[in-house]
Amino acid sequence: MSVIDIQFAAFAAMIKTLRTLRLVVAALAMAVAAAAHAQLSIEITGAGANRIPVAIPIFESESALPRGITDVVRADLERSGLFSLVDIGPVALPESVVPDLAGFRSRGADAILTGTVVPLPDGRFEVRFRLFDTQRQMELGAQALRMSPQQNRTTAHRIADFVYEKLTGQPGYFATRIAYVVKNGARYELQIADADGANAQAALISREPIISPAWSPDGQRLAYVSFEAKKPIIYIHTLATGQRQVVANFKGSNSAPAWSPDGRQLAVVLTKDGLSQLYLINADGSGLRRLATSAGIDTEPAFSPDGQWIYFTSDRGGSPQIYRIPVAGGAAQRVTFEGSYNVTPRPSPDGRTLAYVTRNNGRFQVAVLDLASRQTMILTDSARDESPSFAPNGRMILYASDNGGRGILAAVSADGRVRQRLSVEAADVREPAWGPALRP
Amino acid sequence: MKKLILPALLASLLAACSTTGTSDTSSAAVEDRAGAGVATVTAPGVSGSGIAALTDPNNILSKRSVYFDFDSFVIKPEFNKLIEAHARFLVQNPQMKMLIQGNTDERGSREYNLALGQKRADAIRRALTLLGVSESQIESVSLGEEKPRCTESNEACFAQNRRGDMLYSGEF
Questions:
Q1: How many Cβ contacts (< 8 angstroms) between chains A and B?
Q2: Interface contact flag, B20 A344, Cβ < 8 Å
Q3: Average pLDDT over residues A311-338
Q4: CB-based contact A26:A14 (threshold 8 Å)
Q5: 3-state SS track over chain B
Q6: What's the confidence (pLDDT) of residue B67?
Q7: Per-residue pLDDT of chain B (172 residues; tens, 9 = 90+)
Q8: Three-state SS at A27
């Protein structure tokens, strides 16, 4: 499915009368512009069972902006799988007037978002928006954001986050970034894009592999493993400046960096003392100390959100399984028991769930484990799913998958209902990492 | 400038006459998320060794790969001659250093495969040190599943990827 198809699908519901033609043309023009940049395109392959119907009329005076906002807000919400868009035609409703809530309710909308774009004397714009609940006939909140004309997407993502939070009670994740690695022939690129796949930019270009990108908790830096020196070395890379620092280059392999929640240290895997083992190191590369000692492989560390535990993969018991160990020191506890291959533990942001990869009849699939009830659920169904990464609100899990031998990214909701596929044309995409929520 | 200000004034007047006013909307500026810009960096590469014996196809030293069975980290007897030749070369040329890169097939977690590839590299390193090579001359590392020699998903291909490669100074 191409970018155009996706955009088209998102707007297909609105194509009813000739009067909407202008909107469709605008949507197609946007889609073509996006395709020209070979961005990640996102296809919705499954949606939630009970989607909240929302009406989002075009923001009043939006045409004053070079590129629109409303379409981006709509696409964000629809892609989440938690909302459906109610067709209300191409009528703009000003933010300053309470809409006919009963009328919108009878047209099937549980909520309506109105907005107005106001030009400011300094060349910027103010976007005022207001969200209403049509059932309870009340306003749910309003905001005004000042933006430059180039900030249409960032502004739209913030508005979509506002709607998401007001209607679901959980913070949104649209104004976040993702990192992933694109392999194109012999060229590897560590790319950073908005959560909707737009604005992809290369942070690192290399002729050797790059794996295991991990976002610093402040979202400014990435730790990763680069093979540019013919061996795995851990770097920390400041995105805005491109400044890179070697954090771990000990004799042997250096891999699997995981940030502590306070951003001060990393758990890393080194082979300087033999088999792959867990160590802690300060983010400036100082203060190396051993975290655990085992007779097997210990790798893929991940801190629990409270910073107390490190989950990791170990084959100390014969097959690779997930264990955890107190950061302060102590005995390791085994976490997974079913199956002969359970790897890549990734705790959810609330610490209650563990996403991991399990081998099931020779197929590698993303599963979740409820840490309290011990219940597991396999979320994905292709053969080579790996590298799960939670959205900062814990609702979605981004992972690497395979489509006919070509790496793609996919996302699934933690309840398994919502499914998306993200791909870059004619390139292999792998090693996704969802960045943290950034406080505005 | 005046042309610009007038519509803005009108807009703010209109806003002031807003009929809702159910809640105050304090206006916040949309910041480009701190550090939203991304500077692109290109990683540097490396060249070659320069010693003829190491690349002469008639010299056993030009052979650099040791292949392993599925899920195995044990050097098969057929590679003993190759390991002995490289051990001899390293003992006779103490200034030369060797990087041993372990590799795995593509199945499973990248980081776990990196750890498995290390076991293959370590097996070669141990064999060399048993033959008298100094630990300070050799470093064993893993490329995991990242540098497959063969990229199809079948057993013949996987077998070529389960290997350790020996690189000399200048080649890494």
A1: 225
A2: no
A3: 96
A4: no
A5: CHHHHHHHHHHHHHHHCCCCCCCCCCEEECCCCCCCCCCCEECCCCCCCCCHHHCCCCCHHHCCEEECCCCCCCCCHHHHHHHHHHHHHHHHCCCCCEEEEEECCCCCCHHHHHHHHHHHHHHHHHHHHHCCCCHHHEEEEEEECCCCCCCCCCHHHHHHHCEEEEEECCCC
A6: 97
A7: 344 444 444 444 444 444 443 444 567 877 665 446 788 888 876 667 778 899 999 999 999 999 999 989 999 999 999 999 999 999 999 999 999 999 999 999 999 999 999 999 999 999 999 999 999 999 999 999 999 999 888 899 999 999 999 999 988 8
A8: helix
Chain segment A110-122, per-residue pLDDT in tens:
999 999 999 999 9
Residue with tokens 């291909």: B157
**Distance set, CA B113 to CA A59, A104, B106, B142, B161 (Å):** 51, 55, 8, 9, 12
Mutate: best of A69, A150, A255, partner B, most B CBs <10 A: A255
Contact list, B172 vs chain A (CB under 8 Å): 229-231
Q: Which residues of B43-53 are buried (b: 16+ CB within 10 A; e: fewer)?
A: beeeeeeebee
Mean pLDDT across A309-319: 97
Asked whether the beta carbons of residue A204 and residue B43 sit closer than 8 angstroms, the reply is yes
B19 with A97: Cβ contact below 8 A? yes
Q: 3-state SS string over A199-245?
A: CCEEEEEECCCEEEEEECCCCCEEEEEECCCCCCEEEEEECCCCCEE
> Minimal Cα–Cα distance from A27 to chain B, Å?
24
Give the C-alpha separation, A405 to A403, whole Å: 6
CB contact under 8 A, A269 and B115: yes
By C-alpha distance, the chain B residue nearest A241 is B39
Query: For B169, which residue in chain A has the nearest alpha carbon?
Result: A230
